[in-house]
Amino acid sequence: MSEAQIAIPVLKERLQRPPLTPGQLSWHRFLRHRMALVGAGLLVALVLYVLAGAAFFSEADANHVDLSSTLRGPSAEHPFGTDLAGRDILARTIYGGQISILIGVLAVVLSVVIGVLVGAAAGYFGGAVDNLLMRFTEAMFNIPQMFLLIILAKFFGVEAPSFTLFGRTFSGSVVVIVSVIGLTSWMYLARIVRSSFLSLKEQEFVTAARATGATDSSIIFGHILPSAIAPIIVSATLEVANAILYEAYISFLGMGVQPPTATWGNMLNEAYSKLEVAPWMWFFPGTLILLIVLAINFVGDGLRDAFDPRSLGGRSK
Amino acid sequence: MTQAASLLEVRDLVVEFRTLEGVVHAVNGVSFRIRAGETLGIVGESGCGKSVSALSVLRLIPQPPGKIVSGRVDFDGRDLLQLPKAEMQAVRGRAIGMVFQDPMTCLNPVLTVGRQISETMTVHLGLGREEARRQTLSLLEMVGIPTPELRCDDYPHHFSGGMRQRAMIAMALSCDPKLLIADEPTTALDVTIQSQILELVKRQRDRRNMAVIWISHDLSVIAELADRVVVMYAGFIVEEADVFKLYREPRHPYTQALLDSIPHMDTAGPEELRVIPGSPPDAMSLPPGCPFAPRCTFAFDRCQRENPPLSSAGRDHTAACWVVAAKRKPP
Question: From the list B90, B111, B154, which residue is nearest A213 (CB)?
Fold first, then answer.
């Protein structure tokens, strides 16, 4: 009788307040990181801007050419002004933003997949596999990325056919740019993953997992990768900002996504010829690029600190 | 001598580690056998090759730098050292379970305890998610984790050392193995927990008629559990006997010294701890003769030149010592 009376409150307390998981601890640290919260807020606002904006403007609006009102400054009718073809810049920043963010995210997904596979194989198997993969990674590092981007974009970009997905028509150059950025930016991640794997595979829990009969792939993906996930998330986040910038670079050089599909990058390209005459043409897409890159970097920094258990209660309380 | 079929028979196992400084001769021709349901204790001090021998049975030593140079490991009629990788993986965790020394580092910190236990069963027994979870709960209950349905989704850092070792044992037993290899599973635990774990393994062994290889440097732990004992020194087996015989009449000078160095509470008056003078030989440059000769009080010139083979020292009792061999010679 008395035993049951003692046992129940203990049980209740456990049910009410289970111990925090590592993920929850990281989440709490992230919430205490002020810059990260600012960045996250800004990022959410920008994503909302490009998504919710679609409720007010159709893609046809964004691509609607009106030669009677070219190069108008901001007004009530066109809050962000119009471009060389009289298209509404507000609508174009909304649809361009969708493409820019989409390219950034997809390119990073691709580079994470390649980077994780290469890094995990190199780190886990070691020896000749490691040698081969890492020499290849270094070779890729040694070619300047911008150079590679431009060559590949020029080689594949212009001819790519358009395609329709979810009722929207995308310029084929979107796929090319995603692939090109993804294929040229996985090397850093591969190195991070490799070094995590090199140290993690020596841990006793890996030997213990092998002793239970786990296969190589289940050890790599089921046992080691979850421990290496934090640095991957951090660098992938930061890489999204880079990918958006790369898209802007090549689109600015005219080798990226081809008009009429707008991106923040190719809007800058069009603005280049009217730099002084029509500053609104570069101001709005330029500011949006700046804001999203800043926001992603803040979030990435916050994640880095959140995943680092040593930063518990560190700066930015 | 009963000749029941061996479950596991290790023959002339030689394991080396090829490091930059030289070749470390970790295991130098070790042979032992274990029958179904039998418990074999392997004793020896740190670095004598007992863990490497056990890990080699499951081919778990890191290669490189480790290398199983020669030998056979016959388990259930197959030489494990010759098995293709996939078949070896099917043996690990299924027919042979293993428990490691340090429960603090052997569980994956980012996976829940329940998931780590159930994974073994989904891999080997093909259980579905729910069935595996049900089995996991009953396993946790069996090894004495209170309120398993609450603890199942906890992470290892929510568990104490003793509970983690219980979870490790649950994992090792999950597929009902024929052989459990326990590599110093109680060394990292305090004494009360140690005896609980010992009891747990004993109970499970008897219930399942499971063979156990129990590795320890602690002779008292071995005495509680083992049927037969193998004493290792510098990568060699120096003595093998029934557990009672070994404790009552150890023949090899090393075993004698080892038993003498156990402190006793009942001796009257202050007594100095007896130790074995000197230290084990460097496994990179083993002496040509008996590896224990430099520390042995009985050593004579032959001991410095030739390494004695294991020879009979009584019924079911072997020792690798020239002194013992000389005594046993017929007049």
Answer: B90
